[in-house]
Design brief:
- This protein is mainly α and 439 residues long.
- It folds into two domains: 152 residues, Vanadium-containing Chloroperoxidase, domain 1; 241 residues, Vanadium-containing Chloroperoxidase, domain 2.
- The chain is 52% helix and 3% strand.
- It contains 14 helices and four strands.
- A two-stranded antiparallel sheet has the order 1-2. The chain has a two-stranded antiparallel ribbon with strand order 3-4.
- A hairpin with a 2-residue loop joins strand 1 and strand 2.
- The chain starts with a helix and ends in an 11-residue tail after the last helix.
């Protein structure tokens, strides 16, 4: 990024965020600072989905612990500081998010370089909070700083930004960079990061891709070759829209959905903090487990498989050396970058892994699947509506095939991986506790 562009971004971002906080229907401090964090993580820092999942988890985990330290209604994620029931939950939540993002003089946050942008937003926000009773706001700030410090300390040396995994030698079925840009994975290290919830990424191992010579592989192959082609005559316009819709940044898109649900379901600050922590911690482990699994299998993408089908040993697959997926730079989108096959192995699907975790956690949190969701995509600039949470997962599984970028098996097994994370979370974390006396 050139210096002028960076200057404009630093100058304009606080204004945009302030306008959004005024014009968007607000729920509470948790949703306010989730929006600010999303802009810091995705827009300004430009983190790709698997890396951003870890950042969202750190922010929302600290926010939850800050609010829960005062409310004490559920088990903490990490050890919590002492508090009084009258301490400001709003000040605690805002401070926890801010400090995880920018850090402390002796403990770097996620994006210390963004402090000049975020500091005035935070100062203005805190100044606008009530201080009732007197001192409650200052106490909330202290609690938020404590939970942020605990989170940042806990995640030191957790494997983020570590060395990439070793790639397997080229062979039929093995992933290699794909046309047109032949790019490499921008965050291949994600699979080696210490999980936030599950004991190890290995426990999320999938069954793996179908054998190249199997009938199941041929079925997946011929489906994506037809419906995922750039020139497909069987893919409908609505399926094309769905494919492009879900290529929006997954974690930014789903956090918008969580903010919408917090408003529509009238969640207070306590329940919002728990929902956002559960969802984003589940998303982080789904990303870690998925990327660990991707580089365990290192399965090739459809564009490679179809162009080199004469090497797969399967009589039911036919090569097409010029085949292109729907996700090609020639396909129109409303915002850059252009569409292309993602630059990492096929199996399992990252989007399906995360959506599986998100949807199962939504079902667990609300105790039902039947809540309607409407969402807008910054990739298609269209809005799609769903009657149930599970409808989103079903469409994501299909959409990655319609896009021409994932074999169906990669989507189905990715969804299972994500659901495993959500089931583990439900069993081991965020349990309600009996209310204690004075503390």
């Amino acid at each position: 990024m050139n210096p002028l562009t960076q200057f404009k971004r630093v100058l304009i971002l606080p204004i945009l965020i302030a306008l959004m906080l005024v014009t968007v229907t607000r729920a509470n401090t948790v949703t306010d600072w989730n929006l600010i964090a999303s802009n810091a993580i995705v827009v300004t820092a430009g983190q790709p989905p698997p890396a951003s999942a870890l950042s969202f988890a750190m922010v929302q985990g600290a926010v939850y612990d800050a609010v829960n330290a005062i409310d004490r209604g559920y088990r903490p994620y990490l050890p919590e500081p002492t508090s009084n029931p009258t301490d400001s939950k709003e000040a605690a939540a805002a401070t926890a998010a801010y400090r995880v993002l920018v850090g402390f003089p002796d403990l770097p946050g996620l994006f210390p370089a963004q402090q000049p942008t975020l500091q005035p937003i935070y100062d203005t926000y805190i100044a606008g909070l009530p201080d009732n009773p007197p001192g409650s706001k200052a106490n909330g700030v202290i609690i938020g700083e404590a939970t942020a410090r605990t989170m940042l300390t806990n995640r030191l040396n957790d494997g983020r930004f570590g060395p990439p995994p070793t790639l397997y030698p080229p062979a039929p079925g093995i992933w290699r960079p794909t046309p047109p840009n032949f790019a490499n994975d921008p965050s291949p290290w994600v699979g080696n990061v210490r999980p936030f919830l599950v004991p190890s990424a290995a426990m999320l191992r999938t069954d793996g891709p179908n054998a190249l010579t199997s009938d199941a592989y041929a079925e997946d192959f011929n489906e994506i070759k037809e419906v995922g082609s750039l020139t497909s005559t069987t893919r409908t316009p609505d399926q094309t829209d769905a494919a492009i819709f879900w290529q929006d940044h997954a974690h930014a898109l789903f956090n918008r959905i969580f903010r919408t649900l917090a408003v529509s379901q009238q969640l207070d600050i306590v329940d919002s903090a728990r929902l956002f922590a559960m969802e984003n911690l589940a998303g982080a482990d789904a990303s870690i487990g998925c990327w660990n699994d991707k580089y365990y299998w290192q399965f090739w993408r459809a564009i490679t498989a179809i162009r080199e089908a004469d090497t797969d040993g399967n009589p039911n697959t036919q090569a097409d050396p010029t085949w292109l997926p729907l996700f090609d730079p020639s396909t129109p989108v409303c915002h850059p970058p252009p569409l292309f096959t993602p630059p990492f192995p096929d199996h399992p699907s990252g989007h399906a892994s995360n959506t599986g975790a998100f949807v199962q956690t939504l079902q667990n949190f609300f105790g039902t699947d039947k809540i309607a969701v409407t969402a807008f995509s910054n990739k298609s600039c269209t809005t799609r509506s769903f009657d149930r949470f599970s409808d989103m997962l079903s469409e994501v599984i299909d959409a990655r095939v319609w896009a021409g970028i994932h074999f169906r098996t990669a989507d189905v097994q990715g969804a299972v991986l994500g659901k495993k994370v959500a089931h583990y979370l439900e069993k081991h974390y965020f349990q309600p506790v009996r209310r204690a006396g004075p503390r």
